[in-house]
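Aim 2 progress update. The chain analyzed this quarter is reproduced below.
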Amino acid sequence: MNDIKPRIFIFGLDGGTWKILKPLMEEGFLPNLANLVQSGTSGILKSTIPPVTAPAWSSFQTGVNPGKHGLYDFIGYKQGSYDWHLTNAKDLKIKTIWRIASDRGKTVVTINVPMTYPPEPINGAVIGGVMSPSTDSKFTYPHDLYKELVENIDDYIIYSEPRILFTDNLEKAIDRLIYIEEKRIDAAEYLMKKYNWDLFMVHNQSLDQIQHILWPYINKSHSYFSEEKWSIISKFYKSIDESIGKIISELDDSTTIIVMSDHGFGNLEKVIHLNRWLQLEGYQKLTNVGKVGVIEKILKKLDIFKLRKKFRFNLIDSARVKLNQNYAINWSETKAFMGTGQIYGHIHLNAKGREKMGIISPEEYENFRDEIKEKLLNFKDPFSKTPVVEKVYKREEIYQGSETINAPDLIVKPVAGYAFTKRLNESKPVSICKIKNDFLGTHAEDGIIVFSGKPIKSSKQIQEVNMVDIMPTILHLMGMDLPDYLDGNILKDILIN
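Predicted structure tokens:
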């Protein structure tokens, strides 16, 4: 490229955490990431509440909290409907950074960024990420870009079902994910040459999958840690660093490099079945428990069509939630339910005048929220007899904006080592995660952020910054004015001038 202009290249590492990356850098295992940290500014990036991919990456892309952009989970709920739907880019109520930059004449390329499906027409190219159904769908812009990629880099895969990691052949599974992400980098290199780009992002989704399932073999302080398994898994972390090095070698010194994650990670030992807890407390009633079992059987039969493999997001699980809750819950006798959410608990109240069969009157609403909050804070693990809930938020305490109408009434943060599920048909409110069957890693709020480039201070550590601060900082680095509705701020402390 002949013209000199400020450019931004972003590496997205889904679930990246300093808990793992910092020791690896200190061991000399990740030299390229370590060089970026040394030459730039780094610190903890605070995720959204909840620290889940859909709301977190949406807040990064829009610079606002979920109360403005409207996404709280991969599954959305419209108040008053008892209806759930899979969310995607169409659900975003605020312009993305990609659209803003494109509208101002910048050339933008995004690869595999969550919540960019369906792709919006921009000045540049989009390869959709999480929520893209399959490579048979129109998951790219321009629409013929996938065909072009296959012709030039041989292969491109959106996503691999994480349960391939529940295998006795761990090396084969890790090699498969390395291959998928290497092809992602091949696509990035191809598009970097094709476009005279200003803003570019490539996202690694497989890191999140690996940490969910293999956390005990990644975190060296875990009681199940195995050097043998780590020697295999570590190849994936090495491949990430090599990919960073490969891209850096293609960049000139006018480019500011950002490495970031949407959330951090931690140990998962037990899951809390919030709907079962609500049932035991008398806040939720099922019409016919047998219906749940029937629905499960129907959906298992449907899965003979291999929907799990065809679609990135588990439509079978989504259908299970929707059918179970619509047909198994007795709404006329239910005060509260968890229909959306993961990791953190989402509680929707069955409010009169808001829901179709609401029974909580406006006069009761606030006292009832307080009642549930108090009980949750006193809820103890039946195995250890210790609390399982760290904090309970009322939605207005953490969300602001017109889209709070569809937010959960209460958001429940679990104690470290726990995560919430919305399953209905559980006999107990808490269950122990089993190795080789369940996720053993869960999301945490502390993600990572690294800035490196000419405008950035070197060897600097910054205090915790918010997910919504990254977008305005990028716009500022590119010389663009900020929209007045943003929740985030320019990170001026990281800048030389």
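The chain has two domains: 7-263+445-494, 268-286+329-442. The longest helix spans residues 170-194. These observations will guide the mutagenesis experiments scheduled for the next reporting period.
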